[in-house]
Amino acid sequence: MSAEASDDRVAGFTTFRFGDGPELCDRLLGLVIAGQKTATCGALREFEADPESRPAIGRRDIACRWDWTPAVMIETVDVFECAFRDVPEDFALAEGEGTFAEWRDGHVDYFTRNGGWSEDMLLLCERFRVIEVLE
Prior knowledge:
It comes from Palleronia abyssalis. Residues 16-132 form the ASCH domain. This protein has 135 residues and is of the alpha+beta class. It has a single domain (12-133), classed as Sulfate adenylyltransferase. Helix content is 28%, strand content 30%. The chain has helices at residues 22-33, 44-49, 89-94, 100-113, and strands at 14-17, 39-43, 60-64, 70-83, 122-133. Strands 1-3-4-5-2 form a five-stranded mixed sheet. The protein is globular, with a radius of gyration of 14 Å.
């Protein structure tokens, strides 16, 4: 989930990539930079496997391109856990990926590709703000 990028601007920050491939990563970064995406979520199981990657309110992280080039610094403003079936509509819309139904369909596909999906699966939901675009 995170790696060390070799750019001095990211020294001391956790780095991560959105999505599970270069196309999705680029699309999601574009939404963040445009101000349309102010939230993200992941399967709680991923954060249990890598506790250092778990977002915390006030922490700043670096979102990178798929090749680990730093793209944007974000700051976490809210974090909560909930079951997939209980994700609030306003949170899903803050992810910037279309309607609530489109968010749901896209995330069912994503989680199915990445370890499995169920209505009961726990998610770690994060709201963030952009601090600086780095590219």
